[in-house]
TrEMBL record:
Domain of life from the UniProt record: Eukaryota
SMART domains (UniProt xref): RRM
GO CC aspect terms: nucleus; ribonucleoprotein complex
InterPro entries: Elav_RRM1, Euk_RNA-bind_prot, Hud_Sxl_RNA, Nucleotide-bd_a/b_plait_sf, RBD_domain_sf, RRM_dom
Protein name (Swiss-Prot/TrEMBL): ELAV-like protein 3
Domain spans labelled RRM: 39-116
Keywords: Repeat, RNA-binding
Lineage summary: Eukaryota, Metazoa, Chordata, Craniata, Vertebrata
Pfam families on file: RRM_1
GO molecular function, one term: mRNA binding
Length: 116
């Protein structure tokens, strides 16, 4: 799945994001350091069957990841459709937003933005 996603990323990026989306998942405010705000991303509208490994591979294709987490229900293990990525380099976080925001994965169009 990830190989197909990565291979279609260039087409998606050249065509631009498709459609607009409303936020999915929690609204999180951080009062931490400004450095984190330049590297921390929230990703919404992820496919239900996406694995942690696929999530990490997709975002790791952009740059070095400090940490990433695909959020799941604690009881059922079912994906809640959102996750977090923290890059080492702020430039990679910018690149991830510019490259992956609006990418269509299965029936979902993901939204990638800075964590607020």
């Amino acid at each position: 799945m990830v190989t197909q996603i990565i291979s279609t990323m260039e087409t998606q990026v050249s065509n631009g994001p498709s459609g607009t989306s409303l936020p999915n998942g929690p609204v999180i405010s951080t009062n931490g350091s400004t450095d984190d705000s330049k590297t921390n991303l929230i990703v919404n509208y992820l496919p239900q069957n996406m694995t942690q490994e696929e999530f990490k591979s997709l975002f790791g294709s952009i740059g070095e990841i400090e940490s990433c987490k695909l959020v799941r229900d604690k009881i059922t293990g079912q994906s809640l459709g959102y996750g977090f990525v923290n890059y080492v380099d702020p430039n990679d976080a910018d690149k991830a937003i510019n490259t992956l925001n609006g990418l269509k994965l299965q029936t979902k169009t993901i939204k990638v933005s800075f964590l607020r």
